[in-house]
Amino acid sequence: MTETVVLKLGGSVITDKSGACAIDHARLERIASDIAAREGLFVILIHGAGSCGHPEARRFRLDRGLDGENTAGIYRTHAAVCRLNDAVVDALRNEGIEALGVHPLGMALADDGRLVRCETAHIRLMLKHGVMPVLHGDVVMDLTRGASIVSGDQLVAHLAEAVQVSRVGLATDVPGVLCGGTVMPRIDRNAFFASGIAGSQATDVTGGMKGKVAELLALAEKGIESNIFHVSRIGAFLDLTDHGGTVVAGSR
Ligand code: IPE
């Protein structure tokens, strides 16, 4: 049976976070060839924003919603992350993958910063017809705040559940969830609170590693485990070999 996998590329692994929308094309080429080399997998690819979206979201204070002064931030933030999406799709297509950009702004709705609706029927159809959907963290309209930022990690959790995928992987610029400098091979809700990560400062508008683990723990409680590993280990994750990272698991 063909497996369906959700793979998220953190924004910091495909952009240089110090520049303004500085896309790492060489990294994207390597990732695309890693994915292209694996046959017989249905992949839903989701990427973050990195320097193509986070600076705009911050500048327009979209984390606080719309205030009558920052409406242009919707366009600016969306346009920035769409530029990155085009680059990801191009890199995959150059490797012969039938990739297609799918933008959450047009298919999802949030309430107070949380995704409440997200169409997935077309994602299933794309997979069925051999198309790889490539989604991204995005600005979306929000019932309470007017607009808000939905992270790629929120989308990972939503799609993994809605499409009932068999595996979830998040490629990051660190080897896994770190505690005292070493990778935690497994983390569940109890270990999360014991490790101190739960109380750490957020590093970007959507919460950095803390936000990521929180999303994935909620998913794990619904029975879907996920994996956080270094971007150089994407092949190992797809091949079901040891990726050397962290498994986010439900509490036993
Ligand atoms: C953020 O998505 C989306 C925008 C700011 C538009 P993510 O939160 O998934 O991005 P990264 O992975 O942290 O860069």
Automatic annotation (TrEMBL):
Determine if Nucleotide-binding is one of this entry's keywords. Answer: yes
Q: What is this protein called?
A: Isopentenyl phosphate kinase
Gene Ontology CC terms: cytosol
Regarding protein family, the annotation reads: Belongs to the isopentenyl phosphate kinase family.
Entry's Gene Ontology BP terms: terpenoid biosynthetic process
Q: Which UniProt keywords apply?
A: ATP-binding, Isoprene biosynthesis, Kinase, Nucleotide-binding, Transferase
Reactions catalysed, as given in the entry: isopentenyl phosphate + ATP = isopentenyl diphosphate + ADP
Q: Which PANTHER family does the protein's record reference?
A: GLUTAMATE 5-KINASE, ISOPENTENYL PHOSPHATE KINASE
Domain Aspartate/glutamate/uridylate kinase: where? Answer: 4-229
Give GO MF terms, alphabetically. ATP binding; isopentenyl phosphate kinase activity; kinase activity
User: Which InterPro entries does the record match to this protein?
Assistant: AceGlu_kinase-like_sf, Asp/Glu/Uridylate_kinase, Fosfomycin_R_FomA-type, Glu/AcGlu_kinase
Q: What class of enzyme is it?
A: transferase
* Enzyme Commission numbers on file: 2.7.4.26
**Record NCBIfam families:** IPPK_Arch (NF040647)
